Structures are given as structure tokens and as C-alpha cells.
Amino acid sequence: MWFIAFRQMFSKKKQTVLIFLGIMFGTMIYVIIAGTQYGMRDYLTEQLLNNTAHVIITGNERKIDPVDLRERFFPADSLVNWIIPPAGKREEARLENPQGWFERLSADPDVLAFAPRLSINAILSRGTLRHNVGLVGIIPERHVQVTSIGDYMLSGKLDDLKVGTNNVVLGSGVMESLGARVGQTILLSTGLSEPRPFKIVGVFELGNQQIDETLAFGHLNDVQGLNRTPGRVSEISISLTSIEMSQDKAHNWSLYSNDKVQGWEEANAAFMQVIRIQDIVRMVITGAILLVSAFGMYNVLSIMISQKQKEIAILRSIGYGPNKILLLILIQGLTLGISGGFLGLVVGHFANVYLDNIDLGFKIGKGTSLLISYRPDIYITAIVAALISTTVASILPARQAARLTPLEIIRSNL
Predict the structure, then answer these.
(1) For residues 297, 303, 307 and 311, what is the CA-based torsion angle, rounded to 10 degrees?
(2) Where are the strands (E) in 14-106, listed by range?
(3) DSSP for 161-230?
(4) How far, CA to CA in Å, does 362 sit from each of 38, 157, 189, 369?
(5) Coil, helix or strand for 122?
(6) pLDDT computed for residue 273 by the predictor
(7) CA atoms of 79 and 58, how far apart (whole Å)
(8) Residue 196: phi, psi to the nearest 5?
(9) Is residue 344 within 8 Å of 386, Cβ to Cβ?
(10) pTM, two decimal places
(11) What are phi and psi of 318, to 5 degrees?
(12) Which of 99-103, 147-151, 409-413 has the highest mean pLDDT?
């Protein structure tokens, strides 16, 4: 059976090569597109997790509500018409009971690590230069357990924030704007107090220009002192043993307090929408590859069967039943699908390796080349798609050939 199947395949070399190349190119295109999409997704995910973590607990912003004020200061039956409606926030967002959260998180076996932070807006100055940044007060040894920011340090370490007092780590864009160097002293101010001298002990670069130009880190105690809010914590970043638990944990913890508790997906809803759009695009591409490959294979196999009717008639006349004829055609289709699919994986992989080494001329992440992912499920999906398309495309011509009888073939060729 296998000998006859291969003999028929190679008797029409051009048609066999055409099917083979169609499957190979379809698989290759999917591997390339999926590799670039997943590579960009992994990069964006890493950038977000550098600053977000699996679950984040933040203080609720106590915004001024005109309806609430009217109920508090005026009788219920009075008609109040605000000339300028009250707006704004009563105070900066902060956790109501951070120590209580520390105890609860320390006792939870699903919590891998947690890191308290205080985020404020600050003004950096060096001589006549000024630069606005988001200053994040952290505990370095805890922060590196929750995020991977330590891997992006160009100079110094986050632990250097613990050496003495009033130290700061700046983004590479901030350093460039100030024209400063590690070891120099700059002035920090919240705009409501006298500037304080801070020593630059490190520089980081995430590869995201917006973050590198607007972010700085200081020790939590130093930032609390600069902000004149000792003991204040604005948020807690939490790393779980599994990221899949983030939504359930966030929901359960939100029942304990009025603080805002958000899972990673909820806190980055816009990013998750982009991910879902990418998934839809990838599924559409996969469907298109399946459709094109299946149609091409179906047409070529149909032509091959019509050209080999005499051979099929001979096989039927010497005892080959419909099931064996069906199996004969399926063997040819699946052989082409498996071989073309695997070659497509190899070609697609090396195409991604080539793209991974092209210098784009600008920085993305830690390098300047296109971000490519080599995750195994890309290759698994590609080969499964190739097998599905070839199987479906082979069944219809195979069933058509299996129904042919020697008499029908003779009559059709008269």
C-alpha cells in the first residue's frame, strides 16, 4: 500500500511539489507571524510587569462628590444649584491600613512576595535644568522579588538605595535630560517643600522611552520624608505563585477593605484588549492558511485522481476495495502534509532567527533587533494546522476515488 502510494505521488512530480510547497509556505508564514506577535506580546507583558506585578492594591481616590456634599450641608428638600460644582480629590490616595495588608499577605501561602510603594510626582533639578518625574519609593530587596527591574540596570544596583540616605536611581532618559552621571548629587522637590539633595546611585533602561524619561526610584523612607508623609504607602505590588490566580485573589482580597484591589488583567485592560485583537488576527491568519492550503491540495489531488482513473480501475479489478483506495489517497495527502509541515517549521524557524538578528537602528527592550518568540506552542499549532488542512483536503478526493468502479471508469474514458 505504501509503495503504491509513493509510486503514484512521484509519478506526477510537478503536482506533488506544488502541494508540498503550498503546505510548506503556509506553515512557514504562520510560524513567522506568530513568532513576531508573541515576541512583541512578551516584551509588552514584561514592560508592564516591571511596574504592575500580578496583583496591585492601591488606596481609593477620595473624590469630591457634589451630591454627597449637598446631602451633608443642606436639608434634603432644598434645591442646590452650584455656580461652580465642587471637584477634585480630598487627599492623595493612600492605603488605610498597610500594616494589616502586610500581615495578611505574609500569612497567605499563595503570595510569593509583596512590595510596598509610595508614588509621588517630583521635580529634579541640576543647576538650571529641571525635569518632572514620577518618583517611586520602594524597599529594594522586596521590589526585586516582585518585578524584573533589576535586570535592566545599566549602572549600579537597586540595593544601593539602602546605602546611606537620600539616594535615587534614574531612568536613562532622565539622566540624559539632566546631563548627570552616577555619583553626582541632584535636588528633588515635590513642589510644596524645599528641595533636598539626592545622590544618583544607579541608572536603568527598560527600552520604553516614555518610562525611561519619566521614572525614578528612591528608598521608601527617603520618599516618605521628601513628601512629609512618614509611614504612608500608596500601593502594594504582589507576586503570586501563579499569575492565573490574580483575578480570584484580587476579588477575595477586595472584600477585606475599601482599598482598590486589581488583578493584572483588570489593571491593564487596554493591554488585554490589544492581546485579544492579536489573538483574533492570528486565528484569522491560521484559518486563511488552512483554507488556502486545503483548496490547493483538494484541486491538485482531484486532478491527480482524474488522471489516474485507469490505475484505480486496475487496482479495483485485482481486489482493492473502496476502503483501500480511500486509504491510498489519504496516505499521499498525510505524507505531503507531514513532510511539508515539518519543512515549513524548519524554514520558518530559521527565518525568525534571521529576523531576530536584523538591526532595526533603534532600541527595543534590551536590543535593537525585532523581538521574536520561539515558544513551543507556535510550532505545535503550525504542524496541527498543516495536518488538519491536508486531512480535510484529502478526504473528499479520496472518497470520490473510492466510489469509482472499474465499469464507471471504462465508460467515462470511452
Answers:
(1) 40
(2) 55-58
(3) GGSSSSEEEEEHHHHHHHT--TT-EEEEE-SSS--EEEEEEEEE--S-HHHHTTEEEEEHHHHHHHHT-T
(4) 20, 25, 33, 8
(5) strand
(6) 74
(7) 36
(8) -120, 145
(9) yes
(10) 0.61
(11) -100, 10
(12) 99-103
Question: Residue 169 is which amino acid?
Answer: V
Residue 18 confidence (pLDDT) above 80: no
C-alpha cell at 398: 479520496
| Side-chain half-sphere CA neighbours of 355 within 13 A | 18
Query: What is the rounded distance in angstroms from the CA atom of residue 108 to the CA atom of residue 284?
Result: 42
CB-based contact 196:135 (threshold 8 Å): no
According to DSSP, the β-strands at 215-219 and 129-138 are parallel
3-state secondary structure of 95: coil
Provide the residue type at 220 as one letter. Answer: L
Can you name the residues that pair with 241 across neighbouring β-strands? none
Q: How many CB atoms lie within 10 A of CB 71?
A: 12
360: its cell numbers:
532595526
- Residue 364: CB partners within 8 Å, gap ≥ 6? 43, 207, 370, 371
Beta strands in 241-356 (DSSP E): 260-263
pLDDT reported for residue 89: 59
* Distances in whole angstroms, Cα of residue 92 to Cα of each of 54, 227, 230: 24, 11, 14
Identify the CA nearest to 33 among candidates 240, 268, 278, 242.
Answer: 278
> What is the DSSP secondary-structure string of 231-270?
T---EEEEEES-GGGHHHHHHHHTTS-SSEEEEHHHHTHH
Q: What is the pLDDT confidence band of residue 14, given thresholds at 50, 70 and 90?
A: confident
Cell numbers for 100, please give them.
494589616
Pairwise pLDDT comparison (299 vs 28), residue with the higher score: 28
Q: What is the helix, strand, coil percentage profile of the chain, to 5? A: 55, 20, 25
C-alpha cell at 283: 486565528
Residue type, 393: A
Q: Are strands 215-219 and 55-58 parallel, antiparallel or unpaired?
A: unpaired
Give residue for cell 490505475.
311
What are residue 263's DSSP bridge partners? 55
Class of residue 210 by CB neighbours under 10 A (exposed 0-12, middle 13-18, buried 19+): exposed
Tell me the residue length of the chain: 414
More confident residue, 277 or 310: 277
CA distance 11 to 317: 21
- Is residue 344's pLDDT more than 70? yes
Whether residue 60 has pLDDT greater than 80 = no
